[in-house]
């Protein structure tokens, strides 16, 4: 296939110590709606360049850690204003390289800015030194920066999942080396460059590449914290790579989030039906916290499925990300498309019923890009791969359950525990929610619709370690440092 570059083609370079660094080779990033079209080029960062970026961050840390919190907040607020001013250009680039519809790309910037602003508003209180005079003397508790942070982000929310790390890491006095995903490197790199333009050289560095560069970032002794969002399998490599130097880490990993519809759920509530459809198909189902398996009480199951299909056929409109009618775009890459398609075909072979959902707005584009027909999967077994694996695409299994104990067991036997949702009468839903092993449980909504950046976000079990967002998401970039001045300097039980 002949690859064409067009007038909008952009080129990003690695950013090391405030300088764009040329690389010997560049990789073309294709447009998922038309893989023959190049959106831009990003570099292959060499191991030596990755080391240089880490060393630049380590050098910059010496002065940056001494800056006041006020100064850091001031610079971050200036960066926020610059991102706002560039929002339309960023959205354009993000939609082209990622495939997400324009409204969804704006949504990603919205969430990023909301978090960056929250982090600026809360940083002072979260990082303030505490001094206590007490019976046994005096204690100073400070929240010190950790050092050089390796921030590794995935392709599905490349900007939000980079800024979720950059903002608190820098506000807390750390320096950073960011590596965006090669499947969506351009818009994240542009946003990182905008932020970097407000900060001293070396405070933010950006490198590109995949596992090889990632391996350097996660094993280099100068890196003291890893902030990673991505797949659970990748995290296993990272944990091993980091083990020689025992690095601090926050890991935000995969999920297989369940939506549970209790007997008390009203299937005639059209707004709720639209919310669950959005929770299944937003960003073409490629969100860690999307509802990936739906369990419905058997007494309302048939009526639920009927109303669900009606709601999905209204909301799911597959097309060009730049067509304002489009709600669902292509998958981001061919590997992901093939994986999801394989899971649906496997379910069909096992006897499941696969129902196509929504409208295809442009058949020619659909055949040209990494598009998949959105589907509903019925009559599958509780333990079929499409139910127990993280499908990360535009398909969803809906299964009946008979009692609450059964569905809690089905929920909790997963290796994952990122988010979940319970739908029905609020008080009944909360009783069930309390029994679910998940970092966040939403009532009568799901996925990003129920996300609140003021509270910690992260997973139980193999969905991760640690939390982002909330005050915890700022403190996670610090080490608690206690300075104790005891009144009793010599302990009485220690012999002379
Ligand atoms: P991925 O694990 O393939 O890649 C994530 C990042 O890790 C990329 O930048 C990649 O280049 C890098 N990487 C790959 N191998 C590496 C290695 N050996 N060492 C260091 N870095 C390495 O994930 P993906 O396909 O980009 O993203 C999808 C996954 O991310 C899904 O599982 C999804 O659930 C998860 N995710 C989780 C959250 C969350 O908050 N929990 C949010 C979004 C996505």
TrEMBL record:
<dbReference type="Pfam" id="PF00171">
    <property type="entry name" value="Aldedh"/>
</dbReference>
<dbReference type="InterPro" id="IPR015590">
    <property type="entry name" value="Aldehyde_DH_dom"/>
</dbReference>
<feature type="active site">
    <location>
        <position position="252"/>
    </location>
</feature>
<dbReference type="InterPro" id="IPR016163">
    <property type="entry name" value="Ald_DH_C"/>
</dbReference>
<comment type="similarity">
    <text>Belongs to the aldehyde dehydrogenase family.</text>
</comment>
<keyword id="KW-0560">Oxidoreductase</keyword>
<dbReference type="InterPro" id="IPR029510">
    <property type="entry name" value="Ald_DH_CS_GLU"/>
</dbReference>
<feature type="domain" description="Aldehyde dehydrogenase">
    <location>
        <begin position="26"/>
        <end position="481"/>
    </location>
</feature>
<dbReference type="InterPro" id="IPR016162">
    <property type="entry name" value="Ald_DH_N"/>
</dbReference>
<dbReference type="InterPro" id="IPR016161">
    <property type="entry name" value="Ald_DH/histidinol_DH"/>
</dbReference>
<protein>
    <submittedName>
        <fullName>Acyl-CoA reductase-like NAD-dependent aldehyde dehydrogenase</fullName>
    </submittedName>
</protein>
């Amino acid at each position: 296939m002949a690859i064409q570059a067009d007038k909008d083609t952009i080129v990003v370079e690695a950013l090391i110590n405030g300088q764009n660094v040329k690389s010997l080779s560049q990789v073309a990033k294709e447009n998922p709606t038309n893989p023959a079209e190049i959106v831009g080029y990003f570099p292959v960062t060499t191991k030596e360049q990755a080391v240089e970026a880490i060393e630049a961050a380590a050098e910059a840390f010496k002065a940056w850690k001494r800056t006041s919190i006020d100064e850091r907040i001031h610079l971050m607020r200036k960066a926020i204003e610059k991102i706002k001013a560039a929002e339309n250009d960023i959205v354009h680039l993000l939609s082209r390289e990622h495939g997400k519809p324009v409204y969804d790309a704006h949504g990603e910037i919205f969430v990023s800015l909301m978090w960056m602003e929250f982090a600026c508003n809360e940083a002072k209180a979260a990082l303030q030194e505490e001094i206590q005079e007490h019976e046994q003397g005096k204690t100073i508790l400070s929240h010190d920066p950790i050092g050089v942070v390796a921030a590794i982000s995935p392709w599905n929310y490349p900007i939000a999942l980079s800024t979720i790390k950059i903002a608190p890491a820098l506000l807390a006095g750390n320096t950073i080396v960011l590596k965006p995903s090669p499947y969506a490197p351009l818009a994240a790199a542009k946003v990182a460059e905008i932020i970097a333009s407000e900060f001293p050289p070396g405070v933010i560095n950006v490198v590109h590449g995949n596992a090889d560069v990632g391996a350097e970032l996660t094993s280099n002794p100068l890196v003291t914290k890893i902030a990673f969002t991505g797949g659970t399998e990748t995290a296993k490599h990272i944990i091993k790579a980091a083990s020689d130097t025992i690095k601090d880490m926050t890991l935000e990993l995969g999920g297989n989030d369940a939506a549970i519809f209790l007997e008390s759920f009203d299937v005639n509530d059209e707004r709720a039906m639209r919310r669950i459809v959005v929770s299944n198909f937003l960003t073409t189902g490629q969100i860690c916290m999307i509802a990936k398996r739906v369990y419905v009480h058997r007494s309302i199951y048939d009526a639920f499925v009927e109303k669900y299909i009606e709601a999905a056929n209204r909301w799911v409109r597959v097309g060009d990300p730049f067509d304002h009618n489009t709600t669902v775009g292509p998958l981001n890459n061919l590997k992901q498309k093939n994986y999801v398609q394989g899971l649906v075909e496997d379910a069909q072979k096992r006897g499941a019923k696969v129902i196509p959902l929504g409208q295809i707005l442009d058949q020619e584009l659909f055949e040209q890009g990494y598009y998949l027909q959105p589907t509903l999967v019925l009559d599958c077994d509780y333990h079929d791969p499409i139910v127990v694996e993280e499908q990360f695409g535009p398909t969803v299994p809906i299964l009946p359950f008979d009692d609450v104990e059964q569905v809690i067991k089905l929920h909790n036997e997963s290796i994952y525990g990122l988010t979940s949702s319970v739908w029905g009468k609020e008080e009944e839903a909360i009783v069930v929610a309390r029994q679910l092993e998940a970092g966040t449980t939403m009532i009568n909504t799901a996925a990003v619709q129920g996300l609140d950046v003021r509270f910690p976000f992260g997973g139980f079990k193999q969905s991760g370690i640690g939390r982002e967002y909330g005050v915890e998401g700022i403190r996670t970039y610090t080490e608690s440092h206690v300075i104790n001045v005891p009144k009793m300097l010599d302990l009485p039980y220690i012999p002379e």
